[in-house]
Structures are given as structure tokens and as C-alpha cells.
Write the C-alpha cells for this entry.
Amino acid sequence: MTSRVSLPSWQALQTHAKEMKSQHMNDLFAADTSRFDKFSVQLPAMLLDYSKNLVTADTMEKLITLAKECDVESWREKMFSGEQINKTEDRAVLHTALRNREQTPIYLDGENISDCVEAALTKMKAFTEQVRQGKWKGYSGKRITDIVNIGVGGSNLGPQMVTEALKPYSDDSINVHYVSNVDGTQIANVLRPLNPEKVLFIVSSKTFTTAETMTNAKTAVKWLTSASFDQTSVAKHFVAVTANKENAVAFGIDEDNIFDMWDWVGGRFSLWSAIGLPIALDLGFEKFIELLEGAHDIDKHFCETELENNAPVILALLSLWNCTFLGAQSQAILPYDQSLHMLSAYLQQAEMESNGKSVSWHGEEISYPTVPSIWGELGINGQHAFYQYLHQSNNVVPADFIGSVESVTPVQGHHETLMANFFAQTQALMAGVNEEQVRVDLTVKGRSKSYIDKVAPHKVHKGNRPTNSILMTRISPRSIGSLIALYEHKIFVQGVLLQICSFDQWGVELGKGLANEIQAELESEENIRPHDSSTTGLINFYKSTLNKAD
Ligand code: F6P
């Protein structure tokens, strides 16, 4: 398989990047007043404006040619039809089947998995209704009022991010809590105000081996049974979502209370499966289906739209352009909607666990920069914290701004202020302000020459900082489904362009294995085995200081 760098389109982009580095977006906007029309895409439930990137029509044409030379369309076909594109784990990648609302048959090893998905949804629906209608009773006959989801990574971030995003759509008949950290402080804080008679735990773990989740689940069982004095109460208060039924049963979960997962769904792409159960319990099953429908809208857009207007393809190409060709090393996710306060944490896992790799499909070191690190925060909070860096540091950080035209929770005067900041910041990051403009401004304000000489260089904003603007009509189950699917497909295309195995995560295994060994050492009275001097020193300090700290 040829390396991407030998493709003619790759080489053309390298040459083109050198030319574009000397351009300023201000000049590109001045030279072409139709940039917004040219470089924006209307999607179901949202608009994507990518005109504030350092691109011209020629750049986009070259990028699209690269996508074609990388066979993005045939890879897309392979993913949706269930080919084993997760090569290192010999698995298909079919999270899209979970929201295949037209229920077209998808065959995997002779089985129509659309049928499995429908059966799983039917089970989720029945369970959700039982709990929400108060028909599912706890050990003392009381209805369930609180759900505690125990899971980490993909078994936490997706459902929690969506629960937070869709809070205004919850009828508050059920409270949903999340425990992901093995630091006992979290589970202790979550459980303290709860009544064990009315709590239902969901143990969410695709593998049902994740140490942090198992530790939390055992603590939850102890908490319940120390109140119920009855081991059989576990059946009424614990359900599991897993692809490892055997381990869940061995843990003590009633077989009827186990919801299926499949190895063709990656953990970080799993919120569309029963991993999304807390979402359905919080909002009601119909709204969970709307979430799936929103994702399906984008699946259709991704499959049916020519590459030139295909939003996930464009986002992936722009990431490649900004990072691999223009040298950006990180990317900010900046939501201007309180609902999306967990979006950057969610996308950190989605993008960095998928594509944060440096070996290609054929096992060779990749010679070019791959994906950026992803970080971010609510835009307004960021403005008063790290935007200084975005505007004036000598590192360029491309940013995605995400906001809504309509607020779901309108409070007079707030939304205009919020969105004025969204528009102002993207404009400022693009246009900047040069020294001449600064001097004129300060002169008009009557400042002295010596003051202007001193301050002017500090007030210069070079601008030319790329942003994408995603304007959602309003936050809803359907539009959130679409937003997440948009990023999922961006990540998939990024992986294809970079020749990265996006669906494995070997990089998290090394630390996990070492932690198991070290935990045994922490628990033992024996001297520890030799590590490097730093790790040995830290463990010995920990053991000798334990219980002696003030
Ligand atoms: O540690 C990484 C990871 O394997 C993620 O990919 C996954 O989402 C998370 O752990 C949780 O895994 P599980 O659902 O099997 O507990």
C-alpha cells in the first residue's frame, strides 16, 4: 500500500501550503465576497461555515482530489456494509447500524444485524417504560427515582454528555447520576444523598473487565446489600450493558437484566446502543429514538452527498490541512451553548483515542504530523481564561465554534450577548488588528505618542487563525444526534486520509497492565520489585508515608 506522501495530490498540497502560509484571510475575504456562500454547507439541523480557514477554491479542490485518491468513498462503503475495517481487531465497524432507522438489512456472518438492533431497542423500550412508569420496584417495593450509571470512557462520556446536553428535555421523573472515576470520592459523593431502596445501577462496560468500573460496581453492591441485608436485592437494583454476558452473570447480574453490546460497536461510538440507556431513562424512549434519527440524518448526508459538499469530509480535510500541512498541533472545541459543556471532553476521547496514533495501516511509522490534541471549554468561560493564547500566542490553534440560533432555555437578553461573542470572536480570530489600526484607534482616543509607542506592539492581533462555525438551529435530541454523528464521520475520514487504524486503542493497554502489577505491590507488605528509580521512589514514598500524613 502506497504511503500518502507519494500521492500526487499530497505533494501538490505540500507545495500549495508553502504558498498559502504567506496569505492572510483578510485578503482572501476582500478578494472574494462570496466566500461564505462558497465555503458553507447547510445540513439537517445546522449550518457549517468553514470560510474562516486559510483556504481558497483551489485549496479545497486539491483537498477533494486527495480524498478521492485516498478512496474515501469506497472506505465509507466498506464501513457501512460491515467489512472488517477494524483490521487489528478483525472487526466490522457498524455503530451506524444502531441508528439505521430505515432498518435496511445489514448482514454480518450471515446474520441480519438490523434485527439484533431492533430486538435490543425493543428490550430497552420495555425496560425504560417499566422504570419510568414506576412499575419496576426496588427490594422494598418502592419505585426507582435515581439511576447511577457506572462506566468509564465510551461507557460514560457519550451518555453523560448527551444527558447534560438534553437536560431541558428531561421531565425530571428520574435523576441520572454518573460514576466513572475509581477515586472513591466520586461514588461516595454520588451515593451519600441517595436512598438504596430507590436506586437502580447500570453497570456499563463493553468488556466487563475494566478495573475501575468493576471496583465501583462492587462498591455499589456493598452499599445496596448493607442496606437491604439481602443478596437477592441485586437483581432488582442492577442491570448491565455489555458484550461479555458471561462476566456480567458471574458478577451476579440477573441474565434478564443484561443488555447486549456487540464487538462491531467501538466503545467510543456506543452511545447509540444500550450504553445510551441512561439517556432513554432520563428523557423517555421516544426522545432516544429522535437522537438516533438525528444521527441517521447525518449518516445519509455522509453517504449521499458528493465529497465537495460533504460536511464530515470537509471537516476531516480541514483538520488535515491545518495540522499536517500548515503545522497546527492542537484544536479547540468551543461551544457557545451551556448544553454542550461536556462536548470537548467527549470529542477528546472520540478523536484522540481513534486517531492519536503514529503507525500506519501497514504497520509503518508515519512520517507526517497526524491529528491535533483536542481541548476546549465553554466559549464564554474560555474568553476569560485562555482566549488570550488563541489570539496572540505564536501557536495557531484552529477552533470549532458551536452555538445555537435559538436557546432552549431563553432568558431575556442572554442569548444575544452569548451569540454576539461567538460571532465577534470568530471575526477577531480571522481578521485580527494590525499596528496601523491600533495606532489610529489610540490616536482617536487622544493617547500620547509615547503611550502609543509603548503599547501598540502589544495590542496587535495578527489574526489569520482558522475557525469552523457550526450553528445549530436549536439543541434537541435530533440535532445532538446529528452533531455527534458529524464528528464521528469526520474522525473516520481523518483516519482514512492519514492511514490510521481508527477503531483500536492499543495505547491504553500498557498503562492498564502496569497499574495491575503496581496495585499488587501497593497492597503487599513485601519490598517492591525494581522499577526505574523515579517509579520506585514514588511507590516507596507512598507506602512509607501512608497513614502518617497530617
Ligand atoms: O481504556 C480505554 C477503553 O477501552 C475505551 O476504549 C472504552 O471506551 C473504555 O476503556 C471503557 O471500556 P469498557 O466499556 O469495556 O469498560
